[in-house]
């Protein structure tokens, strides 16, 4: 059985559509009236109003009044929108930049309405929709440019950079991207991966055999420069498999290499020469300096201990067989081998010595970002101290 509606209800529906500007769809959703019924009622009401107006010209046409009220309401809404629009878009209107206008519409279309903005800025809808269709052209062009930069940096540095270091190098070239984006571009899209450091082997923790107490206790931070240094030896190979030994000293304040010497033999003399070179490279050190090392015979030798005492330096030593007590040195030597010596074949010891010094004093101290320094170089962190 068809549902019947009262004249008052029908007039209410007509008023919602003709005077308030409600769409058929919204009225149907709210009142459950079909679109055909709404259209029919509006037509009937319009005929009724015209008939009354013809019969009695003094009576205003109610349908025309509804339409006039709707027109005035729309004009008022337009006026309310125009003031904030002029404030927000004045720069765009002055510049006459069509691309800026498109971006403005994308940002404010929900506030003002898309078609209203297109009319207000005198932009053809087709032009705007074409822009939206091709709006990612700039994105893909910029992405291709960054890809090229990543590949260039990666190959210049012999493939040693991970995505965190790559982010820093890109920022130095004026490209600011998040770590996640650089990781996606570098590892996922370009398939470029850094040389992965091998996992540290398991060690048997030896019983404490302290020639000197461990004064750091794995506190590898220093509030000032030249307060805590650490040192150690590592082995390096020539192309004919002959071994050379490097002794390096790091300042724990910023992880900068203070001194580095490579020689044929691993002796206390090499340790003393490296320490002496480090002291001479710095201004006179006032206050206490701690030099931390492992319990190698070179550092526990009479000659080395007496040299430390002569320059008023306090020695500190790791637990025997426990390399984690000197982790910064382990980290540095890992970096030295993975990012430098393992990438080359050294025919002569001179070439090896020169490359190791160049890496320590130039690449490591001045170029390579270090996570300990919030990805500043050791030199930058040292200058900021």
UniProtKB/TrEMBL annotation:
Coiled coil: 62-89
InterPro entries, sorted: Homeodomain-like_sf (IPR009057), HTH-like_dom (IPR025948), Integrase_cat-core (IPR001584), RNaseH-like_sf (IPR012337), RNaseH_sf (IPR036397), Transpos_IS3 (IPR048020), Transposase_8 (IPR002514), Transposase_IS3/IS150/IS904 (IPR050900)
Integrase catalytic domain location: 220-385
Native organism: Enterocloster hominis (ex Liu et al. 2021)
Classification lineage: Bacteria, Bacillati, Bacillota, Clostridia, Lachnospirales
Protein name: IS3 family transposase
Keywords associated with the record: Coiled coil
UniProt function note: Involved in the transposition of the insertion sequence.
């Amino acid at each position: 059985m068809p549902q019947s509606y009262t004249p008052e209800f029908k007039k209410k529906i007509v008023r919602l559509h003709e005077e308030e500007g409600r769409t058929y769809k919204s009225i149907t959703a709210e009142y459950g009236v079909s679109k055909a019924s709404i259209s029919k009622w509006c037509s009937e009401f319009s005929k009724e109003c015209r008939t009354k107006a013809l019969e009695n010209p003094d009576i205003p046409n109610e349908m025309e009044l509804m339409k006039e009220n709707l027109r005035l309401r729309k004009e008022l809404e337009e006026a309310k929108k125009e003031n904030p629009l002029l404030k927000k878009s004045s720069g765009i209107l002055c510049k006459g930049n069509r691309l800026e206008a498109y971006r403005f519409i994308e940002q404010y279309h929900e506030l003002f309405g898309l078609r209203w903005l297109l009319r207000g800025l005198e932009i053809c809808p087709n032009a705007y929709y074409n822009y939206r269709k091709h709006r990612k052209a700039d994105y893909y062009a910029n992405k291709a440019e960054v890809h090229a930069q990543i590949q260039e940096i990666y190959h210049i540095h012999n493939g040693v950079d991970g995505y965190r270091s790559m982010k820093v190098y890109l920022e130095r070239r004026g490209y600011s991207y998040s770590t996640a984006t650089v990781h996606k571009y570098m590892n996922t899209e370009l398939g470029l991966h850094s040389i992965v450091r091998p996992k540290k082997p398991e060690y048997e923790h030896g019983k404490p055999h302290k020639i000197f107490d461990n004064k750091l206790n794995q506190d590898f931070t220093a509030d000032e420069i030249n307060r805590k240094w650490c040192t150690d030896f590592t082995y390096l190979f020539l192309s004919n498999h002959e071994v050379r030994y490097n002794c390096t000293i790091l300042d724990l304040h910023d992880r900068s290499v203070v001194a580095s010497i490579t020689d044929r033999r691993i002796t206390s003399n090499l340790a003393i020469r490296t320490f002496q070179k480090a002291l001479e490279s710095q201004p006179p050190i006032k206050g206490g300096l701690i030099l931390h090392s492992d319990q190698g015979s070179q550092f526990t030798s009479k000659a080395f201990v007496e040299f430390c005492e002569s320059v008023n330096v306090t020695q500190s030593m790791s637990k025997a067989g426990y390399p984690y007590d000197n982790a910064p040195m382990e980290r540095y030597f890992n970096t030295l081998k993975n990012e430098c010596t393992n990438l080359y074949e050294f025919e002569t010891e001179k070439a090896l010595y020169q490359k190791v010094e160049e890496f320590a004093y130039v690449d490591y101290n001045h170029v390579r970002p270090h996570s300990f320094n919030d990805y500043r170089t050791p030199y930058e962190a040292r200058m900021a101290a």
